[in-house]
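note to self — DONT lose this again. spent like an hour looking for the file last time. sequence + predicted structure for the chain T wanted, 260 res
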Amino acid sequence: MIPAGFAGVENMLWLWMVAMIRPGAAFLAAPVFGANFVPVQLRLIIALAVGIPALSATNFTLPAEGLASIEGFMLIAGEVVAGLALGFAVQIGFSAAMVAGELIGNAMGLSFAAMIDPASGQQNPVLGQFLSIVATLLFVAVNGHLALAATIVESYRAMPPGNAWMGGDTVNGLVLFGGVLFSAGLSIALPVAFAIIIVQLVMAMLARSAPQMNLFAVGFPAAVLAGIILLAIAAPVIGEGILAAIDLGLEQSRRIAAGG
């Protein structure tokens, strides 16, 4: 016989599980939270801390047949899709820094230099990894992690559990927003990459005028040196571009949370 004080513990645990689904899916797809170096236990605790007050603000009740039913399965699927969309929108804006780093690295001739990314566990170009670290610091500095948590909480108003399926316009807007990843990355890399290309054109003209000159021995160090100097000069502009891309990702996540 279950003691009277523990009669509602099972329902409470099911509610906690439902509360963790959407924030947990969002943090899995979002930057910083979804990194490999973030322990799963910590991610679950944060998801529970965000999801419980958000779920308590709604009039949610568990399906009559429980979560192990068709209605419960659709509820869980809707929560997962909504959470992944919220986090993925922010990830798109955040990843513009990685794209910019790859473009600059290709222009400098450093595309073959790679290192392990602690966030994804994959090999990424050195400059892409460097700008990704800068984007992480800027994301935390502007309280992007708090803005994402607030967006997740706000999403429960427009998309309550059980009715969290996104409309066609919302999905189409998220798909079209994927183009921002490339346009923002190109905008961030343009000042440095364009100047390095001009340096390479100059070296190509020198190679044509002096064929005996070893272009690789002279041009590669010149491109790398020019790239380092230009990165130092354009650091404020690059930082502003990364912040703008992160803001676009957070804004798109807010649109999804508002159901638009």
